[in-house]
Write a structure and sequence with these properties.
mainly alpha, 74% helix
Length: 69
C-alpha cells in the first residue's frame, strides 16, 4: 500500500471518528443534510450516522495498522 493511501485512510478515519464522537454536532449536520433528500428513510437518525461512521473509522484504522506492519 502506498503512503498516499495510508494518508488518505488516516484523514478519512479521523473525519469518521469526529462524526462518530459527534464533534460540534457533526452527526446532526450529516443527518440534516441527508434528511432533506427525497427517498431517505426515517431510520436515518443521528445515532445511525454515528454508528456507521464509527464502524468506518474502525475499518480505516485497521487498514492503516495493517499497512504499517
Amino acid at each position: 500500500m502506498s503512503w498516499a493511501a495510508v494518508g488518505f485512510d488516516l484523514v478519512v478515519g479521523a473525519a469518521m471518528l469526529a462524526v462518530a464522537c459527534n464533534v460540534q454536532d457533526s452527526a446532526w449536520r450529516v443527518h440534516g443534510y441527508l434528511a432533506d433528500n427525497v427517498g431517505v428513510n426515517r431510520l436515518l437518525t443521528p445515532i445511525t450516522v454515528q454508528l456507521t461512521c464509527g464502524v468506518l473509522a474502525a475499518v480505516m484504522a485497521g487498514q492503516v495498522i495493517i499497512a504499517l506492519t
